[in-house]
Specification:
Elements lengths: L6 H8 L2 H4 L9 E2 L4 E8 L12 E4 L4 E7 L3 H5 L4 E5 L11 H4 L3 H4 L12 E5 L4 E5 L1
Length: about 140
């Protein structure tokens, strides 16, 4: 088991494709036609030479990239020194939830002093490295 690979990706690689296809998450990121995996990597330095292996690189910000890797090269690519961590994309689901009910705010708003949140300012500043939450 490769320590640079997230657990879900390790599981997906170890699961037979026929079984993987029957799950909601394990096959996400795999293209059966081209036999490639789309992977998100954290790296340092440069990722030169990957194109020569048949790996497509889409550089993002803050030393992240999306790689499209032939199925048989996932392990070899993850062993490159410059690659720090590898994960597969996830499938996200929309759901209809009531934020007030889920936050337990109903109990606060239905009794004296009947708090409404009016006049409250909230700011979330996300630099990518640090999140600062301000309220006033």
């Amino acid at each position: 088991m490769n320590q640079k690979l997230e657990n879900l990706l390790n599981l997906a690689l170890e699961t037979p494709e026929t079984e993987r296809m029957r799950t909601d998450n394990l096959n996400v990121g795999f293209d059966g036609e081209s036999r490639t995996w789309e992977l998100i990597v954290k790296y340092h330095g440069r990722l030169t030479g990957l194109e020569a292996l048949g790996v497509s690189v889409e550089y993002l910000i803050n030393s992240y990239a999306i790689l499209t890797v032939p199925e048989g090269l996932v392990e070899a690519v993850s062993n490159i020194e410059e690659i720090e961590y590898v994960e597969k994309p996830k499938r996200y689901y929309y759901q209809d939830i009531s934020p007030a009910a889920d936050s337990c705010m109903t109990q606060v708003t239905l009794r004296d002093p009947f708090l409404s949140g009016e006049g409250v300012l909230v700011a979330v500043l996300d630099s990518g490295e640090r999140v600062i939450i301000l309220s006033g």
